[in-house]
Amino acid sequence: MNQPQPTWPEAESERYRSAGHWQGVTFDTYLRRWAADHRERVALIDGDRRWTYPDLDAEADRIARGLRRLGVGRGDRVVVQLPNCAEFVLLWFGLQRLGAVPVHAMPGHRRQEISHLVRASGAVACVVPDRHARFDHRELLRGILAEQEPGGSLRHVVVVGDPGPHGAFIPFEELRETTGPVAGPAGDDSGADSGDLALLLLSGGTTGLPKLIPRTHDDYSYNARASADICAFHAHTVYLAVLPIGFNFTLSCPGVLGTLFRGGTVVVSPDPSPQTAFALIEREGVTVTSLSPPLVPHWLDEAASGVWDLSSLAVVQVGGARLPDELARGLGPALDVTVQQVFGMAEGLINLTRLDDPEDLICTTQGRPISPDDEVLVVDAEGRPLPDGTPGELLTRGPYTPRGYYQAEEHNRTAFTADGYYRTGDVVRRLPSGHLVVVGRIKDQINRGGEKIAATEVEEQLLTHPAITSAALVGVSDERWGERSVAFVVCPGDVPHPRELAVFLKDRGLADYKAPDEVVGVAHMPLTAVGKVDKAALARRLPQV
Ligand code: OOB
Q: What is the model's pTM?
């Protein structure tokens, strides 16, 4: 039941099972095992609240009962848009206990993104905070419900915090039912199969609307375990979740799940500021955390104040966007930690520098694949493999890289090769050691400090502005973000100011980070020989940093 389509060929699946990558165990059962194995250990800390492993297990039961009462069951999709708080983790395991499927939204997502996620996944429920970052998520969900077409899938909205005056919204606290059956047959409560869909991740997107990525129990738990092995996570690992927990990096590379697999402790940071994080590092004895590159300078500045005791911190992972080599070189000595670069993707493949790699590899490469069964090709424009050292597009397939997006048959024909390799759109150089250096990108995406912006999505929105007749969004290098977005627009009249466009796009329900940083009017769009907008020519019009 509930097989994500398409799946791995049987021969490959068998290979991954016999290699021990796929263990045939669901997250629901893993949680039961952890609770039995670590009776006293603290699994999760959020502020003054603490959960041991058995507490976490019992809480998953309660939430599963509450969800079941709402009619949520095995295979049902539930959009989860929560900031970093313990409820994210509790809910995630409550859903796993039912065999239901969390659909990960990011905290910054707004009407466009959330309604797309609901529609694309056919979600029956959404779980949101009341307010976060001065934004009222209840208002957002009221709008989405009101706009839903008759027969739409969304039936329930659960709110962490105050559900507000909208009587139909369910307070998260009310989900926690202490009595009654949790679910199906004993042993594996969820009744789910380890090959079933365990979660849906959102792709960064290139063309059309962002796609959903089907991750199974087998593949996603391997992702977390293999990462935890390489990072040598153990029962005394204390992991600080600084980036959004719904981000694959934070959840599973090795992140929250990798920590739980090893009996360690997850500490939730409600925001990524160094002040908040350093206070938690000091108080809880945090040993490892993960950052995006734009956070690094802020962390270094604050650490230089010398008022914090960060001596417990041993490893800082950085990923999601290219970390400049000099920043990598500065980070280790400044915090007295081992730096680990992480080049991963929601579509699967994770690359890590190893903790004992020579400093040069740690500072100048984005790591190498975590699995011996990751297959990596670097190819030219015709798809022909290139020798080591020559930059080309990275293609990959393997035990935790799904063979296609969720219900996107047509898109899959071009996003994957005929023999199942995912075309990453990343341009890399491969060293003889297997380490990859990310040197560019051929996908039409902007990576703004780790936040991915699909150019076509924003361009379509810009074209709805009455002053704009043609639009092209281009990424240019930027000191703070790594890349910033520049909208080139053709306007018969005045060119709108970036602030006005930001308000316009916000009103249309687009996440704030997708608003162009800069707007440049052009008389007409330069075209390539095949008649496409020549984005490289547009980028050359700007002063380079
Ligand atoms: C992570 O996942 P996504 O799905 O948000 O983005 C994936 C894309 C990659 O294809 C690449 O273009 C870029 O983000 N990227 C990097 C990078 N890490 C990701 N580019 C250069 N250097 C890096 N270190 O971003 C993600 C998922 C799991 C772990 C870490 C990151």
A: 0.96
